[in-house]
Amino acid sequence: MLRLAVTTNAETFQRLREPLAARGIDAAHLQAKERAIPLTDSAVTATPAVDDDTAVAAFDVGLVYPGRLMEGAAITAGLDIPWVNGREAVLTSRNKGGVLAALDAADIPVPYSVMLSNPVAESAVVDAVAELSFPVVVKPNSATRGVGVAKASDIDSLLGVVDYLDLIHDFRATGDKSYLIQEYLPDARDYRAMVIDGECVGGVQRRLPDDLADGRWKHNVHRGAEATGVDLPESHRHLAERAATELDIPYLGVDLLATDDRLVVNETNARPTIDTADKYDDGFYDRLAERIRETAENRP
């Protein structure tokens, strides 16, 4: 049976174990964070693996490269396996500004967006929104799960948000000192399309339940939104497929925003959470298993 390394131990790992096992793939957790990682031979006995069942030598292929790239480099140094989504795929998708610029250059619709690379003068922030109407959206370039995303209703509130970002970026250890300012699309419907090898294999619509929706506008599941399986329109599927193909990422979550007159790619995620199987197309796990096998077979 093919042995698959999964570096998340949250919902995704629990949901995919049984379906993949039925397809001849044994998924096991490779812990890459919140542990001590041996770096030298002499450290191995002093710092044993958390679980002998997840010894790095036991894997044939990995699903997605560890999200914490520093720990990922250490944990995979002795792990000669291919990844469905490797380090470059994770880096590409995590850079929101880079993704939006690449998609726009390929004539794939995205929200009007500007990247600010700190430190910048206050005048640069004001100039960045000259073509926009308030409110605008401000978001860290590399964060996930909606962390740090804010809506600014006027120039003073925008500069206030930027003040907080300046404080964070003042720490020398902060890796990414950039952020985005984007147009706000009111009443936009929020979708996550899942794409494998350039083909959309289903998706969900993310909405806040009625008891949480009043006065709120973000639809992140980690902030209380619910993901409901939907039959994505062909236009949505096609746009998600175009984005994944342009970025050349085999296994990708593509976030779409839809209004009555626009459909845009808002973000992408090369480490997408897998939802329950009933929210995807029939054959979702067949396609995922096929991609995992092909990755293992085509290792360098």
> Could you tell me the radius of gyration in angstroms?
20 Å
What form results from the Cα inertia axes? globular
> What is the β-strand count?
13
Discrete helix count = 10
Strand content: 15-25%
Which blocks of ≥5 consecutive residues have pLDDT under 50? 45-54
Supply the CATH superfamily name of the largest domain. ATP-grasp fold, B domain
Largest sheet: 5 strands, antiparallel
Secondary structure category: alpha+beta
CATH architecture descriptor text of the largest domain: 2-Layer Sandwich
- Domain module tally: 3
- Give the overall pLDDT as a whole number: 89
SSE arrangement, N to C? EHEHEHEHHEHEEHEEEHEHEEH
Q: Within the CATH hierarchy, at the fold level, what is the topology of the largest domain? A: D-amino Acid Aminotransferase, Chain A, domain 1
CATH top-level class of the largest domain: Alpha Beta
Termini gap: 20 Å
Helix content: 25-40%
Strand arrangement, major sheet: 11-10-9-12-13
Quickly list its features.
300 residues, alpha+beta, D-amino Acid Aminotransferase, Chain A, domain 1, five-stranded antiparallel β-sheet, four-stranded parallel β-sheet, 24% strand, globular
Description:
It contains 10 helices and 13 strands. With 300 residues, it is α+β, with helices and mostly antiparallel strands. A 5-stranded antiparallel sheet has the order 11-10-9-12-13. A 4-stranded parallel sheet has the order 2-1-3-4, with helices on both faces. Mean pLDDT is 89; it is low at 45-54.
